[in-house]
Write a structure and sequence with these properties.
This protein is an all-alpha fold. The chain has a single domain, classed as de novo design (two linked rop proteins). The protein has five helices and no strands. It has helices at residues 8-24, 35-54, 59-85, 91-117, 124-127.
Length: 131
Amino acid sequence: MFGFEKLDVWQKAVEYAGTIYQVTRSFPDEERFGLTNQLRRSAVSVSSNIAEGSSRSSTADFSRFLEIAYGSLLESVSELKVAQNQQFLGSGVYENVYNEAEQVAKMLSGLRRKVRKNPSTMPPTVKNSQR
């Protein structure tokens, strides 16, 4: 098992991407290469950046990738709002997915703070490579 896989936030981000895939299945076919694709890519980017950042050899690098993951999450929230405005999502579905995004955001923010204050909270793939 890779170190990042032990992170609760990575696991939650993977779940969030799965939720996005599920809700975008009902989007119109003409959005397949538009909003559907963009929303899926931004959601997948969250867990991908956590994983990639965990391979970096410094706390600063890992923190930077966590910031990128956070930015991707916010991008997906913006895209969710566009989808709701276009009536691709009902208000109940939108609220549920939005709440899931908020949970991931809180977890990412917490990890970012921890990593800055205490580098030993970094996943083993990062800690083991530090000298």
